[in-house]
Amino acid sequence: MPLLTKGIVSVSVVVILALLVDPGSAWDSLRHVAPARLGLAVVGGLLGLAVQWIKWQKLVSSVRPETTRREGLRSLLAGFSVGLFSPARIGELSRGIFLPSQRLAASAAAAADRFCSFAMTLLAGTLCLLFLWPPAGLAAAAGLLVISLLGRRWLSGGGEGDGDGRGLAKYNSRWPMLLDLTTALRRLPVTIWLGTLAWSGLFNLIFFTQFLILQSSLGGELSLPVVLAIPVIFGIKALLPVGVMDLGVREVSAVLVFRSMGLDPSPAFDAALLLYVINVLTPGLLGLFFVGSSVGGAVRHFWQIEWVTFSFAKLVARSRLRKGAARVETGV
């Protein structure tokens, strides 16, 4: 995403928030946050990080059995950092390049991790949307079904092209490693997919609970509609990953959803902002240390990240994956 586009997105988000949220009310709500509940939300963030570590360790060990727990944690945090500075958090797929070998297989595992997290967030958001706004929920369910069928067709090989110029064959020239990555994804056992989905569901539950704790600590209303609205917020965020440094869409979604329910959006906005700091910004900044030590300096890697687009091949071609791809990566 070019810098100009990033700037436009940033300005648009600021304008929307300025129109929808009273800054004085949001600041007053933030000043009166309950310290004990804020601490509980931080503990939830640590628990969520542990769940992601376990999930990633199991997943990457299935394709690279020699991966140690330390290597798993370092690559996870480094991926958080790259994801923080890349559009749609696509940089999280770079976890594999921070491992000593079999980077393509590990990158495929990272793609499976992101896909499962995305799927569980959308599923939770769709189910809650069915209770809150049934017509919108039915439309979302239909869209989710279409996405699921397309994803299944892609992974089963139906998207490789059948002579009509469509499928993976069409894109292989633009994204040279996409075919290899998809092939590696298909080789993952069904049990690994199911386990990753289960861990992703647990992480989403922790994430939603953190938001609820922060919302209540900021004086927000606690009711069943509020509980159901939280997954909807993150479902919207998952579908619109266009914010700069993963900031903006989550907060705007929280404000819009709560306003549509006739509730004060200030606590929801503050809760989304605090959750961003706890769960996204802090791990991402911590991962900078591992990015710097693994890729020859964080400044150099930031320059590479500026050129990242939705083409994953461009990311891996600018990193260590390029050096090892010819040796072992295609043998998952």
Verbal overview:
By secondary structure, the chain is mostly helical. It has one domain. The relative contact order is 0.17.
Q: What secondary-structure arrangement, pairings included, does this model have?
A:
Layout: H1 3-20, H2 23-31, H3 35-63, H4 69-84, H5 103-132, H6 134-156, H7 168-171, H8 178-186, H9 190-217, H10 224-239, H11 249-260, H12 265-286, H13 288-295, H14 298-305, H15 312-317, H16 321-324
Helix pairs in contact: 1-11, 2-12, 3-4, 3-5, 3-9, 3-12, 4-12, 4-13, 5-6, 5-8, 5-9, 5-10, 9-10, 9-12, 10-11, 11-12, 13-14
Provide key terms for this protein.
332 residues, mainly alpha, 16 helices
Question: How many DSSP E strands?
Answer: 0
Distance between the termini: 31 Å
Alpha plus pi helix count: 16
The secondary structure category is: mainly alpha
The value of Rg in angstroms is 20 Å
Q: What does the oligomeric state look like here?
A: single chain
Order of helices and strands: HHHHHHHHHHHHHHHH
Beta percentage is under 5%
Mean pLDDT across every amino acid position? 78
Shape: globular
How much helicity do the residues have?
Answer: over 70%
Total separate domains: 1
Spans of at least 5 consecutive residues with low confidence: 159-167, 296-322, 325-332
Largest sheet: none
